[in-house]
Design brief:
This protein has 402 residues and is mainly α. The chain is 75% helix and 0% strand.
């Protein structure tokens, strides 16, 4: 769960958040609020996993508890945003951290997507070893970086930035930061492989979220207090600026290598997982019967298109909105469970309201990204209505028959 959560967002979000909120304390507060929001989501997903101890995630929960159309839309959003969109976000972040001429950065990022899509079969064989090694290196380096940053702590005495002129900036910032917690529910996808999923999955969700939140809070405190505000504000590579200020060029190079390695394994993991979800949806009758190569090509094409057509901030707006709405809809399914299987109402209600508030603020402040997110969701509903709403128009997924 920790491995799936710590990705590109933690290395990019605070620079944009600092630019909007204008203070270090505001950024730390937003990370704290996002941690609480993720924890309420973890408890809610844990209740769903306890009630339905099967693999399948949002697709399964929404299909079983709400309606097959809701499950289809969740799968559709995963295909476009959670996989192709997240792959593009990681590739754009890769561009920001590689520090080469702009044209060359783009070529390398696109080439990485293409090569890893072609090699996804080979990645399955070596992927576990590479991912585990990277997760270990990433976790150890983050802890060393945090300890070093706290040891040399000196709060810069610079002028504060311009304060936000509207309260809408706060929920938007919360939604941006919450994108960094995407993956906190990763354990639900392997529920059937656990010996005791009703106990182990909820426990993994809560403990993993607490570990991730602690790391996030500490490393972002180091980021925002490491250098003058003017150097950190609005920068997409805040980890590099922070490392340069704390330890000079050598530490900066170490952080750069770690971030690039993390992004490489993140893209490779998405290249492996995403096409298999498309193949599974095809087997269930929700998509044409794609082969794995065809599904990989489709995801690769979508990711390349998004990488070429959007900036890091635009992709951040789009992904944070569409994925928060999908997660909020899934958490709302908790209220379809019998009373004795539900968590305390404060947990799902807090997560849903926080997600919806961030979505409303994003639509108000950044309508372009909001419209793209809504178009993704509505297109899924339209496809379902046109092709799968009539009886007999699809095969029933095996999981839904249990």
């Amino acid at each position: 769960m920790v491995a799936n959560t710590i990705g590109a967002g933690v290395y990019t979000t605070s620079g944009f958040t600092l630019q909007d909120l204008g203070s270090r304390e505001g950024v730390v507060l937003v990370w704290l609020l996002a941690s609480v929001l993720a924890l309420t989501g973890a408890v809610s997903f844990g209740a769903l996993a306890r009630a339905i101890p099967k693999s399948g995630g949002e697709y399964l929960y929404l299909s079983r508890l709400i309606h097959p159309a809701a499950g289809f839309i969740a799968g559709w959003v995963s295909m476009i945003a959670a996989f192709a969109g997240a792959e593009a976000y990681a590739a754009i972040t890769f561009k920001a951290y590689i520090n080469l001429p702009a044209g060359l950065e783009t070529l390398i990022a696109l080439g990485l997507i293409l090569v890893l899509s072609v090699l996804q079969g080979a990645l399955v064989k070596s992927g576990t070893f590479i991912q585990n090694l990277t997760v270990l290196a990433k976790g150890l380096f983050m802890m060393v970086f945090i300890i070093f940053g706290l040891a040399v702590w000196q709060t810069p005495t610079d002028e504060p930035l311009k304060q936000p002129d509207t309260l809408w900036i706060w929920p938007v910032s919360l939604m941006w930061v919450s994108l960094s917690f995407t993956g906190f529910n990763a354990a639900i996808y392997v529920a059937e492989e656990c010996k005791n999923p009703r106990r182990d999955i909820p426990r993994a969700l809560v403990i993993g979220t607490l570990i991730t939140a602690t790391l996030y809070l500490l490393i972002n405190m180091v980021f925002v207090y490491s250098a003058p505000l003017a150097q950190l504000s609005g920068t997409p590579d805040i980890a590099l600026v922070s490392a340069q200020a704390l330890g000079g060029e050598r530490l900066r190079q170490g952080v750069q290598a770690l971030v690039l390695l993390s992004l490489f394994t993140l893209i490779s993991g998405i290249a492996v997982a995403g096409p298999r979800v498309m193949v599974k949806m095809g087997e269930d009758g929700y998509l044409p019967p794609f082969t794995l190569k065809q599904a990989s090509f489709i995801q690769c094409a979508l990711a390349i298109a998004m990488t070429l057509s959007s900036s890091l901030l635009e992709q951040l707006n789009y992904l944070s909105l569409v994925l928060s709405l999908t997660s909020a809809a899934t958490v709302a399914a908790v209220f379809k469970l019998p009373l004795k299987q539900r968590p305390h109402v404060a947990f799902p209600l807090t997560y849903i309201l926080g997600s919806l508030l961030g979505a409303a603020a994003s639509l108000y402040r950044e309508p372009k990204g909001g419209l793209a997110a809504l178009a993704t969701i509505l297109s899924g509903g339209l496809v379902y209505a046109l092709f799968f709403s009539k009886p007999g128009s699809r095969s029933v997924p095996q999981e839904a028959e249990h």
